[in-house]
Amino acid sequence: MTKKTSIGSKLYTALVFIFLYAPIAVLIVFSFNSGKSTSVFEGFSLYWYKELFNDSATLSAFKNSMIVAVVSSVISTIMGTAAATAIHGYKNKFFKSSIMTVTNIPMMNPEIVTGVSMMLLFVFIGSLFGKTGTLGFVTLIIAHTTFELPYVILNVLPKLRQTDPHLAEAAQDLGCTPAQAFFKVMLPAIMPGIISGLMMAFTLSVDDFIISYFVSGTDSQTLPIRIFSMTKRRVTPDMYALSTLIFLAILVLLIVSNIISAHGDKKLSKKEKGGAKK
Amino acid sequence: MNKKSSLMSRLAGAPYIVWAALFIIVPLCMVAYYAFTDTTGAFTFDNVSGIGKYADTFILSIWLGLLATVICLFVAYPLAYIMAAKGPEKQSTMTMLIMLPMWMNFLLRTYSWMTILEDNGLLTTAINSAINLINDTILANNALSFSLDPVHLINTRGAVVVGMVYNFLPYMILPIYTVMLKTDRSLIEAAQDLGGNKLAVFKNVTIPLTVPGIVSGFTMVFVPSVSTFYISQKLGGTGTILIGDIIETQFQTANNFNLGASLSFVLMILIFICLAVMNRFSDDDGGVII
Predict the structure, then answer these.
(1) I need a surface site. Which of A193, A213, B53, B179 has the fewest CB within 10 A?
(2) A chain contacts of residue B170, beta-carbon cutoff 8 Å
(3) Which residues does chain B have within 8 Å of residue A123's beta carbon, measured at their own beta carbons?
(4) Which pTM was predicted?
């Protein structure tokens, strides 16, 4: 009986994963197509990979994406960590909960509404100064920072709650200034939350299309916007080549980070064992 | 000294509060402002009252979004259940495998479905050759006097729903799985010990315990599905215009910001009402459990 159900569950799991990976498999297979088609496979070739590296518009869009992601994720991580520390310390419950409600808005709101609302703000401010081309790098970075902030705050807050509040006080009793107490004691304690917030902010930024689509100008195309404008026409397999490369990069990154964390766990358990012996 | 540190930590929040006011609150006010003014900036109800024209589009968007969300729930729940019963190593591999597709650009993933579903695409060709085979057998045996028509998948509402389910399924699996991991297995065992059969335990214990996961999965799938425009553009053709498509057109090609803003405004309110109803639903259920 149990064996029967386990075969059923294995089959089900396999079906769901086939569904999830079929389009990705199609992308990867057709990136090696020697012909121009994205539905008839004519033969194996690396032609589209070569083509990709000759496509200056795509490469510059990739560069733009990286710049926006790095700048916005650093700003949102610093501002978000400071904000989380402050929110954690607020005694006024009403004030605290209203800030959290506002923080949740960009996560709850449909992305298209967030994008549209920021576009309207930037266009409105531009019209006050009589300018038309207000949309560009700056607006893109502002918008990305805004939608990344909630994720940073929500990653850091739980770490602050887990940290013993007496730690900072103890450091101050031992002669640290409040600033030293924060940077030397609190910051290392909440570092894992900050790092996962930063990583999340970065990946959200690289991946974002909908919000960027409304707040970017012609000179600040990011990679997803470039892909969008290419998929408006018939897509050539060089886009598939690009996504295959991105997929491989992420796969390698995930495997490496998994190995590192598994290694860390082993070390930790060894240490614990060593401690127990003593 | 303590006062000094608390003042400092309070000041640390100031940049964020200013930022949130400027770039979260003010933009929403701008949406309301544009929704209730005309091109000259004069106050008007025309945009909002003219929305009745788009009632069908709103209903279609909500219907397809709801359909996709419910399908996601029925696909995700068993998988989350299976995952939660596995060992820790298998669990982390499976979580990674579920998250991995989300890191691929969603435009390209959707585009890939287009090549699968189009008339000379992989799936359509496979299904139609099977249909031809069946038709030939029917003809050869003279058994029946009908034949099956070849299927057409792309540019249908079904294709749009497939696209939504595909893109947002991980958002349903992961929250349900997380809640299942946290639930106390001994509660389920206790229910079994107390004589509940499998179905009764599942219905009365497992499902109520996982309601928070279902609610958050529901929100995370429903909101992007209702407001999507790319999926419907690529997979729905001209026959499936969703509310996201109309908003996108107003801002990107038609340049009618006032109409676009009023549509966004109504969409936002509709979604907040849906979320409030969902949250109420989960709170009530939580009360019942306690």
Answers:
(1) B53
(2) 20
(3) 257
(4) 0.88
